[in-house]
Amino acid sequence: MAQQQRALLTRQLILSSAAEIFDEKGFDSASIAEILDRSEVTKGALYFHFPSKEALAQAILEKAVTTEGVPPQELKLQELVDIGLLLAHRLPREPVLSAALRLSTDRSARFRFGTRWPDWLQVSTGLLQEAREHGETLPGLDPGEVAYLLLCGWTGTRVVGEGMPDRGSRLTEDVAALHRIMLPGIALPELLPRIEVTVARAKRLHRTWVRKNAAATRS
Q1: Does one domain contain both 108 and 29?
Q2: Residue 69 falls within a domain, yes or no?
Q3: Which of 1, 16, 67, 179 is 20 to 30 A off residue 154, Cα-Cα?
Q4: Residue 168 lies inside a defined structural domain of this protein
Q5: CB distance 158 to 40 below 8 Å
Q6: What is the pLDDT along the chain (219 residues), one digit of tens a residue?
Q7: Are residues 175 and 88 in contact, defined by beta-carbon separation less than 8 angstroms?
Q8: How many domains does the chain have?
Q9: Contact of 91 with 98, CB cutoff 8 Å
Q10: Cβ(60)–Cβ(18) below 8 Å
Q11: Which domain holds residue 50?
């Protein structure tokens, strides 16, 4: 078991190091030598877990779609907002998530590996369909169309913000603002006061998730 745990930790270390370099330089400019140097593992260890740089990119993209840390909510629209808020809070803190977005928006990498946009659309569309069935949304709402626009808005907020020094560190704040602006065109007016769209909520969700992970690791 100890050996298995060490192997998992080594794999995660390699993946995180590769993610940092992909995020900093892009896939094409990153090299295996830099990943080895950053992770401080042997070439044999790296190739044991990942046979190529392409395999590293694929493994990063496999982790792009995550709803970890978001518990089910009575209002499905709250759950949808929570996913966007928590992801915004996690992304600058987790190289793998940040690199997955970089790979998805990099033209060369996108054509080589594809993206996880369809999977994110499926998650968001499913929650919006549930919200519609529960009577939370405005009449005539198209869940797929709204999910697509939310995805475009979230991604654009990150991509544009990175190129603006005064907004690069404000992803959670900007994603919260995006949801506050869009929700009146999605939710029934009487439900809007019940949906919390704040940075404080993102931080609470993150703290709770981190504590649960720490407790699970100790046990």
Answers
A1: no
A2: no
A3: 16
A4: yes
A5: no
A6: 467 788 889 999 999 999 999 999 999 999 999 999 999 999 999 999 999 999 999 999 999 999 999 999 999 999 999 999 999 999 999 999 999 999 999 988 988 999 999 999 999 999 999 999 999 999 999 999 999 999 999 999 999 988 887 776 799 999 999 999 999 999 999 999 999 999 999 999 999 999 998 887 666
A7: yes
A8: 2
A9: yes
A10: yes
A11: 2-60
Packed helices 171-182 and 199-218: angle between N→C axes, nearest 10 degrees: 120
Is 118 domain-assigned? Answer: yes
One domain for residues 94 and 149? yes
Structure tokens at 154: 């979230």
* One domain for residues 13 and 49: yes
54 alpha carbon, distance to own chain's centre: 20
Q: Are residues 12 and 53 located together in one domain of the fold?
A: yes
- What is the value of pTM for the model shown? 0.92
Q: Is residue 68 part of a domain?
A: no
